[in-house]
């Protein structure tokens, strides 16, 4: 018996998950383990389907020939239209011949059968059509297949979401209200009959240069951090002036590691405090939503209070500056141990809890990108915790330590203007991230990437020790800037921040509540997943306006360090590379998610990050 019925490249009819509708799809691959076919719909959407949800085209042609119309929706709607238009006109059936009448009867019988299954589909399809014309003003972007699918998917979700979809489509007329009721009543039957099944499949497209790339990065990332820190300590940090390697024993001190552990566990305690609201993340592949405690800003306030107390009792915070390299080594060792721990435990994790981006089956790749999506110890979410707490808050504390070290080393009564600017700009960035903590739940890091070496090292080492490079540089390389220059840099930072914040808020608010009256002036392209793609506002300016704002800010953070060396500009150069690469990754995911709708979006908004440049 053959293990698979349909071959790669074969054009077949695929059922849209949860519905009774079949669309023409092409088989692109088959997963022997999960017994799932990956199929591509005409609009570019890719889904994994079971064999039972796929039919050959010939079986459909046969059914079609028996029916007078290929679409039950068209038949039912045309009937109702003719009745309402002219009640006095004889019914069509009465004008027909006997054979036509028999055919019509058979047809009607079949229509009733089909409609009884398809009714919610039809009703919902029509509702969405109404809406997109009115709300979106983009009739050309509404495809019948797309919209029916949107609504079908939504219809299978819990009550609240169905309500949310209906609200999103701003339905007003009484006729539509009646349809709403039908939808609610039909929904329950559907849930019982056919729940959506989304089974995670293997990661087929490897990112970051695949196995060789990720293997290299595991060594390259720590080497880069240590190179940058060694360079920064030199009097002449020119690129060609390679720093001498320190003695190995000078890199490690038990006490420093102890302080690091204390810091990490103090942040863990703050995270566990039952203060702040608990919100749900986006639905996982099994439909479950994980709860997250939003208390990052409280953790920051408590940390600030603790540091204030330490300073009051004359604790010398520049201890951090004196042992900076040892702290970086401690953090790197800890992040490596954490990555090993999360990888080992991921081997026992159920398939559905693995990361869509880190389930390739290759050890190095999965270890680097993260095998398990949301490793948790009880309610303690390791990835979410590391994303914003020890590293991000640690970055601000390191900056403060650098400021105090500068004052002490150079005998200053007040910090330099450059140091004040760097500290203030980066403090604003961190506080903003913590204030808007909830927004992180929709980012790629949380929804797509697993927790592995990349994020553990990134969060605990790269962010605090590389992002604080400008402040570290300024301690050893004092730079004087004038007030007008400081003012100009401040304006630049404010412009970057404004773009960054308003773009992120616009998208987050739209994702949370597309029917928000404050967003009523924005247009969007509907997609087959039920989510829209904004085509006006910031997201109609470039495809990643938030990255543009972030890069402008990065430049403003480097400028206070003057132009003597390129080293303090490492951050902005690296950040452009990171965001260009991240944009390409996101673009790829969006194309898979949204297919044709994404292509339309790209046509409408041709530039990715920099208007008229890229
Ligand atoms: P984004 O916030 O840019 O989100 C990308 C997602 O937005 C897409 O996957 C898509 O997801 C949605 N989207 C894309 N286009 C549209 C549109 N037109 N309308 C509506 N939704 C759209 O992702 P990131 O996680 O990369 O970035 C978040 C923030 O973090 C950014 O400001 C970035 O600059 C910053 N960042 C900072 C870093 C640092 O080290 N300082 C590192 C990385 C990021 P969907 O449709 O599924 O909702």
UniProtKB/TrEMBL annotation:
<feature type="transmembrane region" description="Helical">
    <location>
        <begin position="212"/>
        <end position="230"/>
    </location>
</feature>
<keyword id="KW-0539">Nucleus</keyword>
<dbReference type="GO" id="GO:0005789">
    <property type="term" value="C:endoplasmic reticulum membrane"/>
</dbReference>
<keyword id="KW-0756">Sterol biosynthesis</keyword>
<feature type="compositionally biased region" description="Basic residues">
    <location>
        <begin position="76"/>
        <end position="97"/>
    </location>
</feature>
<feature type="compositionally biased region" description="Basic and acidic residues">
    <location>
        <begin position="101"/>
        <end position="112"/>
    </location>
</feature>
<keyword id="KW-0152">Cholesterol biosynthesis</keyword>
<dbReference type="GO" id="GO:0003677">
    <property type="term" value="F:DNA binding"/>
</dbReference>
<dbReference type="Pfam" id="PF09465">
    <property type="entry name" value="LBR_tudor"/>
</dbReference>
<feature type="transmembrane region" description="Helical">
    <location>
        <begin position="481"/>
        <end position="500"/>
    </location>
</feature>
<keyword id="KW-0472">Membrane</keyword>
<keyword id="KW-0752">Steroid biosynthesis</keyword>
<dbReference type="GO" id="GO:0006695">
    <property type="term" value="P:cholesterol biosynthetic process"/>
</dbReference>
<dbReference type="InterPro" id="IPR002999">
    <property type="entry name" value="Tudor"/>
</dbReference>
<keyword id="KW-0560">Oxidoreductase</keyword>
<keyword id="KW-0256">Endoplasmic reticulum</keyword>
<dbReference type="GO" id="GO:0050613">
    <property type="term" value="F:Delta14-sterol reductase activity"/>
</dbReference>
<dbReference type="Pfam" id="PF01222">
    <property type="entry name" value="ERG4_ERG24"/>
</dbReference>
<dbReference type="InterPro" id="IPR018083">
    <property type="entry name" value="Sterol_reductase_CS"/>
</dbReference>
<feature type="transmembrane region" description="Helical">
    <location>
        <begin position="294"/>
        <end position="313"/>
    </location>
</feature>
<keyword id="KW-0444">Lipid biosynthesis</keyword>
<dbReference type="GO" id="GO:0005637">
    <property type="term" value="C:nuclear inner membrane"/>
</dbReference>
<keyword id="KW-0753">Steroid metabolism</keyword>
<feature type="transmembrane region" description="Helical">
    <location>
        <begin position="325"/>
        <end position="344"/>
    </location>
</feature>
<keyword id="KW-0597">Phosphoprotein</keyword>
<keyword id="KW-0812">Transmembrane</keyword>
<keyword id="KW-0963">Cytoplasm</keyword>
<feature type="compositionally biased region" description="Low complexity">
    <location>
        <begin position="66"/>
        <end position="75"/>
    </location>
</feature>
<protein>
    <recommendedName>
        <fullName>Delta(14)-sterol reductase LBR</fullName>
        <ecNumber>1.3.1.70</ecNumber>
    </recommendedName>
</protein>
<feature type="transmembrane region" description="Helical">
    <location>
        <begin position="562"/>
        <end position="581"/>
    </location>
</feature>
<dbReference type="InterPro" id="IPR019023">
    <property type="entry name" value="Lamin-B_rcpt_of_tudor"/>
</dbReference>
<feature type="domain" description="Tudor">
    <location>
        <begin position="4"/>
        <end position="62"/>
    </location>
</feature>
<keyword id="KW-1133">Transmembrane helix</keyword>
<keyword id="KW-1207">Sterol metabolism</keyword>
<keyword id="KW-0443">Lipid metabolism</keyword>
<keyword id="KW-0675">Receptor</keyword>
<feature type="transmembrane region" description="Helical">
    <location>
        <begin position="250"/>
        <end position="273"/>
    </location>
</feature>
<dbReference type="InterPro" id="IPR001171">
    <property type="entry name" value="ERG24_DHCR-like"/>
</dbReference>
<comment type="similarity">
    <text>Belongs to the ERG4/ERG24 family.</text>
</comment>
<comment type="pathway">
    <text>Steroid biosynthesis; cholesterol biosynthesis.</text>
</comment>
<feature type="transmembrane region" description="Helical">
    <location>
        <begin position="455"/>
        <end position="475"/>
    </location>
</feature>
<feature type="region of interest" description="Disordered">
    <location>
        <begin position="53"/>
        <end position="112"/>
    </location>
</feature>
């Amino acid at each position: 018996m053959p293990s698979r019925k349909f071959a790669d490249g074969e054009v077949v009819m695929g059922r849209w998950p949860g519905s009774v509708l079949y669309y023409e799809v092409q088989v692109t691959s088959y997963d022997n383990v999960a017994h799932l076919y990956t199929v591509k719909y005409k609009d570019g959407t890719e889904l994994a389907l079971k064999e039972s949800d796929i039919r050959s085209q010939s079986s459909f042609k046969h059914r079609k020939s028996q029916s007078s119309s290929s679409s039950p929706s068209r038949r039912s709607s045309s009937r109702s239209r003719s009745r309402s238009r002219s009640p006095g006109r004889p019914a069509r059936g009465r004008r027909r011949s006997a054979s036509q009448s028999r055919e019509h009867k058979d047809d009607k019988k079949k229509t009733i059968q089909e409609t009884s299954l398809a009714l919610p589909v039809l009703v919902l399809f029509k509702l969405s059509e109404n809406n997109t014309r009115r709300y979106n003003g983009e009739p050309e972007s509404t495809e019948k297949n797309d919209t029916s699918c949107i609504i079908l998917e939504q219809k299978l979700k819990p009550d609240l979401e169905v309500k949310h979809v209906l609200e999103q489509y701003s339905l007003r007329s009484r006729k539509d209200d009646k349809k709403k009721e039908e939808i609610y009543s039909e929904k329950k039957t559907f849930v019982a009959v056919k729940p959506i099944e989304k089974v995670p499949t293997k990661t087929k497209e490897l990112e970051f240069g695949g196995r060789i790339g990720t293997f290299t990065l595991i060594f390259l990332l720590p080497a880069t951090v240590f190179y940058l820190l060694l360079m920064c300590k030199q009097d002449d940090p020119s690129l060609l002036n390679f720093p001498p390697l320190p003695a190995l024993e000078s890199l490690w001190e038990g006490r420093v590691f102890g302080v690091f552990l204390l810091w990490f566990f103090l942040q863990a305690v703050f995270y566990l405090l039952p203060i702040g609201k608990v919100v749900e993340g986006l639905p996982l592949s099994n439909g479950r939503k994980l709860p997250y405690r939003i208390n990052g800003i409280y953790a920051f306030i408590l940390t600030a209070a603790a540091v204030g107390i330490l300073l009051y009792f004359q604790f010398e915070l520049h201890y951090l500056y004196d042992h900076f390299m040892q702290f970086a080594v401690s953090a790197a060792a800890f992040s490596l141990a954490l990555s090993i721990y999360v990888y080992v435990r991921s081997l026992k994790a159920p398939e559905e809890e693995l990361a869509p981006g880190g389930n390739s089956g290759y050890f190095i790749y999965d270890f680097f990108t993260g095998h398990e999506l949301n490793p948790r110890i009880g309610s303690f979410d390791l990835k979410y915790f590391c994303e914003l707490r020890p590293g991000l808050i640690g970055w601000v504390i390191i900056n403060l330590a650098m400021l105090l070290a500068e004052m002490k080393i150079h005998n200053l009564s007040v910090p330099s203007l450059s140091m004040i600017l760097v500290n203030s700009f980066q403090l604003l960035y961190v506080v903003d991230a913590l204030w808007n903590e909830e927004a992180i739940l929709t980012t790629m890091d949380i929804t797509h990437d697993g927790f592995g070496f990349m994020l553990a090292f990134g969060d605990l080492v790269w962010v605090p020790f590389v992002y604080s490079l400008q402040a570290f540089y300024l301690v050893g390389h004092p730079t004087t800037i004038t007030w007008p220059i400081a003012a100009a840099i401040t304006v630049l930072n404010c412009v970057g921040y404004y773009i960054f914040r308003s773009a992120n808020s616009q998208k987050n608010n739209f994702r949370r509540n597309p029917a928000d009256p404050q967003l009523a002036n924005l247009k969007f392209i509907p997609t087959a997943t039920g989510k829209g793609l904004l085509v006006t506002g910031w997201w109609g300016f470039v495809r990643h306006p938030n990255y543009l704002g972030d890069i402008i800010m990065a430049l403003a953070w480097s400028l206070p360090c003057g132009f003597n060396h390129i080293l303090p500009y490492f951050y902005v150069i690296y950040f452009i590379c990171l965001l260009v690469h991240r944009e390409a990754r996101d673009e790829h995911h969006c194309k898979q998610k949204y297919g044709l709708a994404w292509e339309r979006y790209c046509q409408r908004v041709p530039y990715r990050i920099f208007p008229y440049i890229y």
